[in-house]
Amino acid sequence: MFKFIFDKDTWQEVFDSLSKNKLRTILTMVGVWWGILLLVGLLGAARGLENSFNRMFGDFATNSVFIWAGNTSKPFKGFQEGKRLRLKLSDVAKLEDNIEGIEFAVARNMNQGLVVRDFLSANLNVLGDFPVLDKVKKRNLVAGRFINQNDIDNHKKVTVISEDTYKQLYEKEEEAIGTYIQINSINYLVVGIYQKGMIDNFGPSEDVYIPFSTFQQVYNQGDKFGFLMITGKPEYKIGQIEQDAKLLLKNLNEVHPEDNQAFGGFNLGKEFAKRYNFLTGMQFLTWFVGIATLIAGVFAIGNILLITVKERTKEIGVRRALGATPFEIQRQIIVEAVFLTIVAGMFGVIIGGWILIALDHFLGQGEDAILVNASVSILVLFIAMVVSVVLGTLIGLIPAFKATSVKPIDALREE
């Protein structure tokens, strides 16, 4: 078999057969070419979209939920509806102690403040945070450092600002670390600058960070805080953690168990799941469309080869009369089918690769890139080519058996 494949005469016959009608041969290959092209292009685009999501959320603990206190909507234990609730620092410790699956529970505060430097000013969101925030919502520092435990313990008046804040308050390339800005008329030492990621487009803008303890002291918050960020361990469902946390908070604050307005929440884990489910569905659809198109293209090759066999009936009869076995005739037709499939598939891979390069050039550059590194793995290309070769072999069997089904004497009489 291998000797036949590498035989010069075999390939001479293949090329002679296919070159008799070049246009038909090219059109025959278009179906397979288009199927591979679709598969490579769509899978590469889906991978680029997935990479974009991963870059957007890669430094964020996606198994997270935000919880905040609101007003009660049901009377309970002598309290009328409409009671204003506030989260307390003691609630955080009780949540960590009593709810299984919590990895981090982070108390956070936010308020709007007038931020001033020299003659420049802006109304920005000021957040009071703990150092642990950098573990659940990684800050991409471009200069300096983030808030540390020493800042918390000593109620230091230090701040970490975003690049957008820096651009509003400083001249281009001006050194900011070690300088002071005023937040609501209080001086703060700038110790870090961070670059916002695409994830920061979700929710209120986080412009200026100060130590949580400093925020509590400056804004006279006592043990109260604004909202809570809970991150679950990977093996636990964040939806269940959210339900358990809200129920415990209701018990701690004497709220009716069925009061759904007392504590609000935004389940980031569910939002991430929706997006990744969309990506999974897109990849499945891509495989389905690509394989279906590939199958249609291979069938087109089979149909054209049937026509070719019909045209070559007399030639096949002569070869049979001269001693060619049915297996040799069948083998020749199958090689033609596989050859067409492989060549068409290779063109599909090459042009699909060019398309992905173009997508990466036009849509994959910069911080707001839609498709990041749109590409397909070697394994995917290998699978696509193997599938095409297998399909080409199977579809080649139809005209091959057709070619040997006619008796030599009848084939020689064919006009």
Outline the structure in words.
The protein is of the alpha+beta class and 415 residues long. The protein folds into three domains: 2-57 and 273-413, no CATH class; 71-101 and 233-261, no CATH class; 104-225, no CATH class. It is built from 14 helices and twelve strands. It has helices at 2-5, 8-19, 22-57, 89-98, 133-136, 149-153, 163-169, 212-218, 238-252, 268-311, 313-321, 326-363, 378-405, 408-413, and strands spanning 64-69, 87-88, 102-117, 120-129, 140-144, 158-162, 180-183, 186-195, 208-211, 224-225, 227-232, 263-267. The strands form two sheets. Strands 3-4-9-6-8-7 form a six-stranded mixed β-barrel. The longest helix is centred in the C-terminal third of the chain and has 44 residues, at 268-311. It starts with a helix and ends with a helix.
**Structural class given helices, strands, pairing?**
alpha+beta
Rounded average pLDDT:
83
Strand content: 15-25%
Instruction: Report the strand count.
Output: 12
Compute the number of helices. Answer: 14
Question: Which of globular, elongated, flat, extended, rod-shaped describes the shape?
Answer: elongated
Distance from N terminus to C terminus (CA atoms, Å) equals 33 Å
Largest sheet: 6 strands, mixed, barrel
Number of domains: 3
Q: Describe the strand arrangement of the main beta sheet, using strand numbers.
A: 3-4-9-6-8-7
- Provide the helix percentage: 40-55%
Which regions are unreliable across 5 or more consecutive residues at pLDDT < 50?
A: none
Cα gyration radius (Å) = 34 Å
**Helix and strand string, N-terminal first?**
HHHEEHEEHEHEHEEEHEEHEHHHHH
